[in-house]
Amino acid sequence: MIKKLLLSLVLVVVVVFAAAFFYLDSIVKTGIEAEGSDVLGTSVSVSSVSISPLSGSGTIRGLTIENPEGFTEDNIMQLGEVTVSLNLSSLLGDIIEIYEISVIEPVITYETKITTDNIRALLANLPSTPGAANEDVAVDAGKGFIIREFNLRDAQVNLIASIIEQSVVLGDIQLLDIGTENQAATVSQALEKILGAVSKRILNAEMPSFNDLREAVQGRRQEGTQQAEEALGQGVEEIGSRLRNILN
25: pLDDT confidence band, cut at 50, 70 and 90? Predict the structure, then answer.
């Protein structure tokens, strides 16, 4: 009787864990979309998630972040593949420890206006944490995070200003120790550091030359757009000067 009872208990445990493993990918996908959309103030979608419940490693594919309101392009970021490695045991606690996040070949659309750009607009949407610089994150404010290493590699950045559209070379970005055991980071704080680093790197990147700008405008003129004609009337040098003033 006792053996049957123990066997039944083991079977129940196995079924529960099997169900948890089966739905883990779906739970993570839904969590990223819901939490990401809520924190960033714009739609976040994910194509698929694959997490190994044994190793703690996983892959997130097709993560797309829509542009904030007021910008013309559909998306600000398209992250084709994101690999994650985390401490599985930390999922049971208040602080989730992530060993590494690597974003490979993301497509970033950097859209500028006179006084702002879409990355700064996205940063402005993030909820602030009062006293975050000096106080520990409260447990009841949600789970905290420690990201040991964040890498962004081979990013393709499309710069859009007025009717100018050019590719910008962006070097690799590595961030270490986002959050600590004594001061864990919230989702908002982690995103703020990552987006801030991306914005800074773009602003310091090599900007298109006047010849590149001229070719871009002339290409639009050949397409017969009214905006291209107006831009040529203003002069390519004026557009280039305005672009550099926005980015500096």
Answer: confident
Model pLDDT for residues 34-78, shown as the tens digit of each residue: 988 999 999 999 999 988 877 889 999 999 999 999 898 899 999
3-state secondary structure the chain: CHHHHHHHHHHHHHHHHHHHHHHHHHHHHHHHHHHHHHHHCCCEECCEEEECCCCCEEEEEEEEEECCCCCCCCEEEEEEEEEEEECHHHHHCCEEEEEEEEEECCEEEEEECCCCEHHHHHHHHCCCCCCCCCCCCCHHHCCEEEEEEEEEECCEEEEEECCEEEEEECCCEEEEEECCCCCCECHHHHHHHHHHHHHHHHHCCCCCCHHHHHHHHHHHHHCCCHHHHHHHHHCHHHHHHHHHHHHC
